[in-house]
Amino acid sequence: MLSLPVELTHDQAKGCLAQLVAGLGAETASPVVVNATALERFDSSALAVVLELRRVCMRGGKALVVQGLPRHLSDLATLYGIEGLLPST
């Protein structure tokens, strides 16, 4: 399982995405699960990171599921019309 950090804003987005993509090599199951329960401070960049990770997973033939997406981030996804792209558990 991959995990999002406590803080994921524009400043951390590039590094976080690189770490998540690097971690995909160890993920053999599909769907790949991303745990977002630690996420406390974030902006819309967090959605961009998760969406790009989803694209990378899809290119590798895997699905992505987000676990514990914070309510405010889920609300942002709904506002942007992308909630269907972020399946959750």
Protein model, in words:
By secondary structure, the protein is an alpha/beta fold. The protein is built from three helices and five strands, in the order ββαββαβα. It has helices spanning 10-23, 45-59, 71-80, and strands spanning 2-3, 7-8, 32-35, 41-42, 64-67. A three-stranded parallel β-sheet has the order 1-3-5, with helices on one face. It has a two-stranded parallel sheet with strand order 2-4. Helix 1 packs parallel to helix 2. It is globular and about 30 Å long. The two termini are 13 Å apart.
Oligomer: single chain
Shape: globular
Tell me the helix content.
40-55%
Rg from C-alpha positions?
12 Å
List how many beta strands DSSP finds.
5
The percent range for strand residues is 15-25%
Structural category is alpha/beta
**For the largest beta sheet, what order do the strands appear in spatially?**
1-3-5
List low-pLDDT spans: none
Order of secondary-structure elements: EEHEEHEH
Helical element count? 3
Distance between the termini: 13 Å
Mean pLDDT: 94
Largest sheet: 3 strands, parallel
Kindly list the characteristics that best describe this protein.
globular; two-stranded parallel sheet; single chain; 89 residues; alpha/beta; three-stranded parallel sheet
Q: Summarize this, please?
A:
The protein has 89 residues and is α/β, with parallel strands linked by helices.
Annotate the secondary structure layout.
Blueprint: E1 2-3, E2 7-8, H1 10-23, E3 32-35, E4 41-42, H2 45-59, E5 64-67, H3 71-80
Helix pairs in contact: 1-2
